Amino acid sequence: MAMRRQRVGKAISITTKGHCMPKKTAKRAASKTIISQPEEYDLLILGSGTAGKLLSWTFAAKGMKTAVIERKYVGGSCPNIACLPSKNIIHSAKVASYFFRSAEFGITKENTRIDMGVVRERKRKMVKHLVDVHLANYKASGAELMMGSGRFVGPKTIEVTSADGDGGKRVLRGKHVVINTGSHATMDLTPGMAGANPMSHIEALELDRVPEHLIVVGGGYVGLEFAQAMRRFGSRVTVLERNSRLLHREDEDISEAMHQLFTDEGINVVTNARITRVEGKSGRSVILHATRDKREIAVEGTDILVAAGRTPSTKGIGLELAGVELTDRGHIKVDERLETTEPGVWAAGDCAGSPHFTHISENDFHIIRDNIMGANRVTTGRQVPFCLFTDPEFARIGLSETEAKERGIKYRLAELPMNHVLRIGTLSEPRGFMKALIDPGNDHILGFSAFGWDGGEVMATVQVAMLAGLPYTALRDAIFTHPTMSEGLIPLFGKVSEVRKH
Questions:
Q1: Is residue 36 very low, low, confident or very high in pLDDT (cuts 50, 70, 90)?
Q2: Positive or negative, the Cα torsion across 354, 358, 360, 361?
Q3: Which residues pair with 152 in a beta bridge?
């Protein structure tokens, strides 16, 4: 019987070839792959999201042998199908809204037309540039990028199947391993939904047409951003939200302000709606049947966008063979150092249950980097700022009033309508307000919310003060450039109320 040694990458497999054994036996023997020696790495990373790519570039530049396994998107979801592409589309929608409001600014708007093909191409051009930058960083750092599917076949050992379709496999083992597989859009299991072939945010970013009537399932961040953008491009839009209000975890005044914004822009919002079944095909004609306040309703449209949450991408990657346990919600179980139940194996970003923001994944990178180098850095107590990029934006850092009341925390409140900020008068963007919670004992800022123009940028100023442990009076008495949005923090913190007890 002849023996043939087959080298795939640096991993060696042995198969049998000959005619002296029964066909079934030969078939079974030929299908077996015996791994004699996995390729050894100092750092092995499954997934090239924010934390993963930054870790790879950092440690490879230090001379560590580093490899990143990426199934599809170089750089992860943020530069390809999430944060940056969606904000690109949202900005195009903002420009479109200015055209439709152009008489307000003394500009005629005759013959205004939306070309979604051009909108898409602008987004694609940005994405290509970002991917090129990522590839250049891999080359400059010396980190190896492997395009393919990875799954654990043992502790700290990953089998990689090439993405080029040739079936090639490599087996890698890392001294340190980081799992950074992210999350994906949760598919609604309502009868008929899967068969209707609805869009997720990925397909919505690739639209080359304006949907006639878009039904958005979900009143969270992704759903609200796309709902407003598509309305501004010219779609009829209906948002179906199963909870009693949009952004139901936020303060009621925030939810009310967002609902009013959507109403004013002609977006139909249906809350307390629980979808029971779906008919038709998205892209042509669909009917969503639902119950609302014990009554049956039906919403007819042409397209469906499902934006009903995220599911961690942790299935089918062999975690049980790696000694890595999951939580009851499917996230990888990690401690405060982001180390998994298998020593030397770390997890970062969405798959680890970290708040689903790119900037948090970047902070996960800092934590894992320092801990691999021997530090003892933790996630405990870190700030989690966020911004919803509707127009206007909603941004928050620290405690909301709802959270303070639930925890029985005393606070003083400062509130200011956005139209009291002088910069607003130059922009014709008067909608919204700012508010802050103050610790009555030491005057530190407990939380800040902004619903209004440039809310995310204004929040950053407050966050720096919070990080520094400054009293609110430091911002109240500061000198900010006139006229800027940050200047509005002076009158805001000049309106601090008496103590609110709960």
A1: low
A2: positive
A3: 158
The pTM is what?
Answer: 0.89
Give the C-alpha separation, 301 to 311, whole Å: 26
Sign for the CA dihedral angle at 229, 417, 496, 402 comes to negative
Quick: pLDDT tens for 160-193: 999 987 778 999 999 999 999 999 999 889 999 9
Contact 289, 278 (CB under 8 A): yes
- Alpha-carbon Rg for the chain, nearest whole angstrom, is 26
Listed residue (285, 275, 298) closest to 187, CA to CA: 275
How far is it, in rounded angstroms, from Cα 271 to Cα 294? 13
Query: Does residue 204 contact residue 226 with C-beta atoms inside 8 Å?
Result: yes
Question: With b meaning 16 or more CB within 10 Å and e meaning fewer, what string describes 432-454?
Answer: bbbbbbbbbeebbbbbbbbbbbb
3-state DSSP assignment of residue 142: coil
Q: Give the Cβ contact number of residue 372 at 10 Å.
A: 20
Angle of helix 252-264 relative to helix 221-233, nearest 10 degrees, comes to 20
In whole angstroms, what is the distance from residue 177 CA to residue 333 CA?
15
Task: Give the number of other Cβ atoms within 10 Å of residue 252's Cβ.
Answer: 13
pLDDT per position as a tens digit, 257-296: 999 999 999 999 999 999 999 999 999 999 999 999 999 9
- Nearest CA to 400 out of 380, 386, 420 is that of 386
Distances (CA, A) of 179 to 9, 168, 342: 22, 22, 12
Evaluate whether 416 touches 433 at the Cβ level (below 8 Å): yes
- Tokens representing 408 are 């029985």
- Whether 13 shows a pLDDT value over 60: the answer reads no
Distances, alpha carbon 373 to alpha carbons 105, 155, 369, in Å: 56, 21, 6
Helix axes 116-141, 83-100, angle to 10 degrees: 150
Whether the predicted pLDDT of 46 surpasses 80: yes
Q: What is the C-alpha to C-alpha distance for residues 247 and 253, in angstroms, rounded to an integer?
A: 10
* Residue that has been written with the tokens 């090439």 in this structure: 162
